[in-house]
Amino acid sequence: MNTKRLSLRWLCASALAGAACLLALTGPAPAQDFPNRPMHLIVAFAPGGTADFTARMIAEKMATLLGQPVVVENKPGANGAIGAEYVAKSEPDGYTLFFTTVGAVAINPAFRKDLPYDPLKDFAAIGKAAVNSTMLVVNAQLPVNSARELAALAKQRPNPITIGITGRGAISDLGRLLFESAAGIKLEAVPYRGAAPALTDLIGGHLDGLFGDVPTVMAQVRAGKIKALAATSTGRSDIFPDVPTFVEQGFAGVVADNWAGILAPAGTPAPAIAKLNAALVAALDDPAVRQRLHNAGTVPAPSSPDEFSAYLREELARWGKLIEEKGIKPE
User: Fold this and answer.
1) What digits encode the pLDDT tens for the residues 149-171?
2) Helix (H) or strand (E) holding 139
3) Is residue 197 part of a domain?
């Protein structure tokens, strides 16, 4: 056989192989190959909290469905901003994801104009994951059994009703402000470094009330140590169906849920987003996952990427308007 022809064939084959290798190294992996290595789910809060627990429950099931580990990493700080920035600047390949709550992407932007990320431009929505309904709870000895009765008491009592908050601009604080506006009352905000010490003072009678999410107050409400007056959700909580919403009690617009969802860096390929959303929805539809979340006080709330993206825009606008109108400044 002609050696020149062999050499030419070898060169062509080598060139094609080299091009294929270059594409494999520099180009995105084919959609059918995603995921082919472990993914990382960033939680912007310390281990042990509600967000961390929820993320780990979902990640464990998603890993089974996707056939690759989903490793939860905690990057706490700045009300979620540290974790958000990390993900926003990560490679948009579907392998680094952000388990976000309302604070990092819907409240922070109204407080900080110098945020190193833009919630709408720097992320791609995977899907909404869960909702922790927030409830107004009061000391068991306070002579009220509804939000309307509390509003009436606030207008009659010479000393103000004290409401614990876990930081300016936190959901507990925003819920209080919405209630004040809707009821035409003024409550005294008492700051705490977390919900646990506020709950202790509430049970002990040193505080009148608290806006706390269901996972935080659930055990004490069921034990009768505190009373739940109203939920800040659009509909009644599946976990406390007997507790009416503020809207039901005549206080329109008092909606302040602490929700969670999953985002990816902007530019993540659409096929990867589709696979991740399918796994997220399937995980939240799993009876065992739903039961474990329910037992912890969290309600699964799956959505499509488009639905979550639209919801994020609505939340950004709503909280931004309230924070501007009330002149709330970060601590």
Assistant:
1) 999 999 999 999 999 988 888 88
2) strand 134-139
3) yes
